Amino acid sequence: MSLSVVIPALDEGGRIEETLASASAPGVEVLVVDGGSRDDTVARARACGARVLVSARGRAQQLDAGARAAAGEILLFLHADTRLPPGYDAAVTRAMADAGVAGGAFRFRFDRSSPSLRVVEWGARLRVVLLRLPYGDQALFVRRRVLEALGGVPQVPIFEDLDLVRIIRRAGRLALLSLPATTSARRYEEGGVLRTMLRNWVAAAAWLAGADRRRVAAWYGR
Question: Engineered SS bond to 103: which of 61, 96, 168, 205, CB 3.0-4.6 Å?
């Protein structure tokens, strides 16, 4: 099974090289979909050998553009500030060898450690165990045919990652890998760990309740 990694990016020049290095693997197609960066994200991505596309700004639009341009039978959506673990490609291929698996995600981990960040990591593990609901920063992957059958990545202003998880679970089993996807803690540190965690919980509750996406996106700052 062929694998494509799609990375939506916006002003990630300081991190894109590390992300691309983690995604580099024999036979894996890597695409960066830039949403109008004003820094050197595009130049750095091209220098790393990635295929770069330009899209309208917005993660859902960028993900969909990358998915449609990618060639892989399996699509892995990777945030630009998240690193994949060594051997990720083999782990995904093994999981998807089971025809009943429609997609999956990696374990959540931060790129640095502190007591408060460990609480967030514990909360993420609990959410996945109880709700089977990984977030986009856990490097979601899905069979192309599953995504295409639903018309592509849902074009919504927020929660496109949770919609993708719902699509996967409706189409088959969700594989939860033990390998960690390591994401930047910057958003939590800049906004305050507890405050950001509570904000994310409220947003997820709004998604579960079917709240108006545009209002939630405006509140969340998307």
Answer: 168
**Angle of CA points 23, 24, 28, to nearest 5°:** 95
Residue 28's domain comprises: 3-190
Would 205 be classed as within a structural domain? no
The three-state secondary structure class of 192 is coil
Q: DSSP letters along 96-162, please?
A: HTSTTEEEEEEEEEESS--HHHHHHHHHHHHHHHHH----GGG--EEEHHHHHHTTSS---SS-HHH
Spatial distance between the Cα atoms of 100 and 102, rounded to a whole number of angstroms: 6
Within a domain: 215: no
State phi, psi for 108 to the nearest 5 degrees: -85, 135
Query: pTM of the prediction?
Result: 0.95
pLDDT digit string, tens, across residues 14-53: 999 999 999 999 999 999 999 999 999 999 999 999 999 9
DSSP 79: -
